[in-house]
Design goal:
Number of helices of chain B: 9
Structural class of chain A: alpha/beta
Number of helices of chain A: 10
CATH architecture of the largest domain in chain B: Alpha-Beta Complex
Radius of gyration of chain B: 19 Å
Oligomer: heterodimer
Strand content of chain B: 15-25%
Strand content of chain A: 15-25%
CATH topology of the largest domain in chain B: L-2-Hydroxyisocaproate Dehydrogenase, Chain A, domain 2
Strand order of the largest sheet of chain B: 3-2-1-4-5-6-12-13-14
Strand order of the largest sheet of chain A: 3-2-1-4-5-6-11-12-13
CATH class of one domain in chain A: Alpha Beta
CATH class of the largest domain in chain B: Alpha Beta
Number of domains of chain B: 2
Distance between the termini of chain A: 35 Å
Helix content of chain A: 40-55%
CATH topology of one domain in chain A: Rossmann fold
Number of strands of chain A: 13
Distance between the termini of chain B: 40 Å
CATH superfamily of one domain in chain A: NAD(P)-binding Rossmann-like Domain
Order of helices and strands of chain B: EHEHEEHEHEHEEEEEHHHEEEH
Number of strands of chain B: 14
Amino acid sequence: MAGRKVGIVGAGAVGATAAYSLVMTGSCEEIILFDIAEGVAQGKAIDMGQAAHYSPKGVRVTAAKCAADIKDCDIVVITAGVPRKGEMTRADLLMINAKIMKEVVEDVAKNSPDAIIICVSNPLDVMTYVIHKMTGWERHRIIGMAGALDGARMAYQIYQKLGYGMTQTGDLVIGEHGQNMIPLPQKVQIGSVNASELLTKEEMKQIIERTKNGGAEIVKHLGTSGYYGPGRAVAHMVEAILDNARIVVSSSVLLDGEYGYSDVTAGVPVILGRNGVAEIIEMELDEETKMKFKVSIDSIREGIDTLRENKFFN
Amino acid sequence: MAKGRKVTVVGTGNFGSTVAFILAMNGACHNVVLRGRDIDKARGKALDMSQAANAARQHTVVRAARGPEDIAGSDIVVITAGAPRTPGMSRDDLLTKNAAIVKKYALEIKEYAPESIIIVVSNPLDAMTYVAQKVTGFPRERVLGMAGILDAARMAHFIYEQLEYGAGQIRATVMGGHGDTMVPLPKFTTVAGVPIEDLLDAEQIGEIVQKTRNGGAEIVNLLGDGSAYYAPAKSTAIMVESMLRDTKQIHSCAIMLENDYGYSGIVSGVPVMIGAGGGEEVIHMTLKPLQQERFAKSVAAVQEMVDKLYELKFFDEEA
């Protein structure tokens, strides 16, 4: 990884915030932004390049004129897609975004054939699956950003409830990135104390509900999806990969027998390192969680099946 | 307008210097004061660190105290002073020697910085925390001992060595005294939320617990001329920063127990919420019978040391 170059396809709010976060921490050497809307990538690249003056380390930020300019990247973050609007469900986005994804992936596969792809487009698990199918790459190189964000949202809800323990709270969320996500507050710790010691069952339930509703709540206020949380979550994953940090981050990956499922993507804890997913961690799930996980899988498969029925993969 | 914060570090050995250096590098507070017996050595280190702070573009100024009056106005005083543990020496051997040193500085703090929060790191840790609390008469939330953060960091490192992933994400828990009777709690230990019992077998966990208990001694034996200070100093700096920034984070610390975990009037390591007021709240966890038994043993070991100090009429001299 000589150049530590990160490509960001889709320089909208999430992509740009991810890039900005990487510039501010100096986590990579070069970032190249691409956006289909003319001028957006160019303008933001210049703005960030100037902000880099105050970054602890210099990061070059450039704009790609065409998708083919996203070349020789170590990591490509794909945020391309239509954003979710007020009433729109993730499923509504499915066909539109799958088609956009197909075009983007063809370019990435051609110009950055050794990259690791981080998918951020929604519906997340299905889009991650689409990338697997389109590229045919080894599964460890294609990762969907899901638990990194949902986990942060859960930790936020726990903090809101407790009023202490900020940055010390565990962040485990598995399953679908969407309405069927499975926040697991009962598993995490605040500092060294298990959440179950500090939160009642009722509070735990509220935290789960609020976490699941975390994205929609922001949409309600903003009229569009959040991007600070997602942007920083993407940057966190990029840093883990570039630094070969081998840290555990819940992410959407193609399952091959893990947790009893195959040929479907879903969020599970994985170890992120130089090659993307170094290992999938198989936790012991209780019966209730297993059932919820099945609901998640069914929902993701429904999305994949919709694409199949529409002959998307043909 | 609120004034800049001031942190005094008593003891200018490796441990105290490293604490001060971390605070200066992070710009954690505006003033750091080094208080040591050898004033020139303290001045030299203070100059060196102030210059490093400038290189790091931080605003922290490090000064040496020329006398006890220079610690006045400290928000936090860290007591690192004490004889170091040498190979073969148990923590208990240090007891009377270091109790006298801690007492000396505690009296200074009581006189010159009566509003400060004290963090004790001198060993044997729990007994020295007890001494500092008794000698100053400060409320318990203003006298904490640094132990659990370090022990948990050591445990987390040994878990990492076994797993080879998850560095920085392992949340380990260690309660009880900082010594041979510490109580590592693998049942309350996770890697990014994943319980270590899903990742390691009982034998591996047993080894990790043993290594954690032996963590300090292992380094003492390797170094040959003193004890560890990087991890201890970082652990101390975490407590300092938690107070300065009022983070209300939970860290395992030594504190005078008052109807906590079934004990009163003795110091031991328990999870404490740390904020601007010091140890603002002791967090109560449900311990299993075996854990309770180990905790009891750990408390008894500290009680024994405290009793020894009473036998020697250590506290009477105050009157």
